[in-house]
Amino acid sequence: MTAAPETTVSARFLGLLARDLPPDRLTTDPAALSPYATDRSGTRPGGEPLAVVHARRTEDVTVTLRHAHALAVPVVPRGAGTGLSGGATASEGSLVLDLSGMDRILELSADDQLAVVEPGVITAELDRAAGEQGLRYAPDPASAALSTIGGNIATNAGGLRCAKYGVTRDSVLGLEAVLADGTVLGTGRRTVKGVTGYDLTALLTGSEGTLAVITSATLRLRPVPVATATIAAYFPTFEAAAEASYAIGRAGVVPALAELVDGPVLGAIDPALRGRGAALLLVQCDGAGAAAEAAVVARLLTPFASTVETTEDPAEADALLAARRLALPALERLGRPLIEDIAVPRSRLAEAVREIRAISVRHDVPVYTLAHAADGNLHPIIIVDPALDRLPDAAWEAAGEIFALALRLGGTLTGEHGVGLLKRQWVADELGPAAHAVQRRVKEAFDPRGILNPGKAL
Ligand SMILES: Cc1cc2nc3c(=O)[nH]c(=O)nc-3n(C[C@H](O)[C@H](O)[C@H](O)COP(=O)(O)OP(=O)(O)OC[C@H]3O[C@@H](n4cnc5c(N)ncnc54)[C@H](O)[C@@H]3O)c2cc1C
Q1: Candidates 96, 147, 152, 333: which one to mutate for ligand 1, based on the most atoms within 8 Å of Cβ?
Q2: 29, 66 in Cβ contact below 8 A?
Q3: In angstroms, what is the span from residue 81 Cα to ligand 1's centroid?
Q4: Partners of 172 in the beta sheet?
């Protein structure tokens, strides 16, 4: 008599999910799994995931995590997969927990200026819905039309308006999240203030799917400003533009956004823009004093710039910002981008720009740079030949030097995209041994079996 084939952990796990989830939630067809192995960074950790659970309700998440925890199966939470650090990439044998189908806006309160949403709501869709009540969701990553609120919270996404309104964390009042063992946890509150207990809302925001799975969020909304004034200034050099953007902050003006784009990026977006200068700085002031603030900004930029133009027409401003949002897709057409995301103290921005150029020359790799200038957040983007099956050593060496530069200038490896897979090897350099060890203990307290997005972030 032959022995019955051994029931593998994976088969048992899939059997339990098929038994306990509604019938349309589970995908195991190998042909449908491959896209989940990567995200917009193009990184692939290796192998194919086991299956995808398409969650529609919190109960789908609790059922999935309860079984995954019992059988120690790795789970990769996923929103829209627009991440740029490999955070949502799924390796061999892991289960992808797709939250994009939990996409309901559950409440929108004009009285309390807040919204309660499921994690799969698309960022721009929340902003649009809030706009119907004269409100807006302030964080606006350039990917707002694609990314989910859950992904934004898990990465603590930044965006263009962070200069004045802060990053995603500054708009998250409370969360519902499911712990690794399936326990549902509520954090935070509906009030603008509140300090009872440790701030678990802030801890989960930016935790990259490694501590808990976010299943709903209470988010702060803000009034749509009564007016905006937008300045487009072109510069003879990228350094001059960086110095000019610092002059705005030093003068005590707080613009709603200050976006800096270098000449090569301008050329990728539209060669006609490149013809206008070696760098473009877009600054927007908003609120009742927008026009007066913009006049001050224009005066501050003039000594550095070749041309400075101001518009109070929202349609013209939207066209300028739309061009800025095209930067990454335009660069993706040139080759495979390795996108970095360092942030430096604002006073060191021009120095960082100079050093990045020197690194590019030294390693002979093309580096295209854009920046959320008011936050000192630079995206130096190395473009490599898409035909290569791995990133060349020169690209990694240049990337390593850019990270070292950020730390030397008192900055950070990642201002908004997260560590994911791509920046993990440099994390200890920034955190130092004591903070790194405490972070590992936090991870163990939340996820003792290490099933949530293993191999990411820490
Ligand atoms: C064109 C373009 C422009 C971009 N511009 C910006 C920008 O301006 N600012 C910025 O910060 N980023 C930007 N990004 C990066 C990206 O859009 C953000 O990181 C975004 O927050 C990711 O959202 P997502 O829904 O795609 O998440 P995913 O990529 O699916 O996941 C990102 C991380 O969040 C985790 N996660 C997702 N959902 C959950 C959940 N519900 N619970 C727990 N963990 C979860 C994943 O495990 C992963 O670690 C840009 C990307 C592109 C392609």
Answers
A1: 147
A2: no
A3: 6
A4: 219
Crossing angle (nearest 10°) for helices 290-301 and 238-250: 130
Model pTM? 0.96
Q: Is the predicted pLDDT of residue 3 greater than 60, yes or no?
A: no
Strands (E), 333-425: 336-339, 367-372, 377-384
CB-based contact 253:292 (threshold 8 Å): no
**Cα–Cα dist 330/328, whole Å:** 5
The pLDDT tens digits for 210-253 are 999 999 999 999 999 999 999 999 999 999 999 999 999 999 99
213 lines ligand 1 (CB under 6 A): yes
Alpha-carbon distance 197 to 187, whole Å? 10
Phi, psi of 48 (to 5 degrees): -120, 145
In this predicted model, what pLDDT tens digit does every residue of 289-333 receive, in sequence order? Answer: 999 999 999 999 999 999 999 999 999 999 999 999 999 999 999
Q: From ligand 1's centre to the CA of 155, what distance in Å?
A: 6
CB 351 within 8 A of CB 247: no
Instruction: State whether the beta carbon of 174 lies less than 6 angstroms from ligand 1.
Output: no
Measured from the Cβ of residue 39, the count of other Cβ atoms closer than 10 Å reads 26
Distance separating alpha carbons of residues 23 and 101, to the nearest angstrom: 15
Give me 274's structure tokens.
Answer: 């490149």
Confirm if 119 and 214 have CB atoms less than 8 A apart: yes
- 125/145 Cα distance (integer angstroms): 8
Q: How far is the CA of 197 from the centre of ligand 1 (A)?
A: 28
**Cβ atoms of 203 and 211 closer than 8 Å:** yes
Cβ atoms 223, 138 nearer than 8 A: no
d(CA 394, CA 385): 12
Alpha carbons 252 and 429: distance in angstroms, whole number: 33
Q: Which residue has 């972070």 as its token pair?
A: 439
pLDDT single digits (tens) 141-158: 999 999 999 999 999 999
- Partnered with residue 289 across adjacent β-strands are none
Cα distance between residue 356 and residue 366, in whole Å? 10
**Terminal alpha carbon distance of the chain:** 49
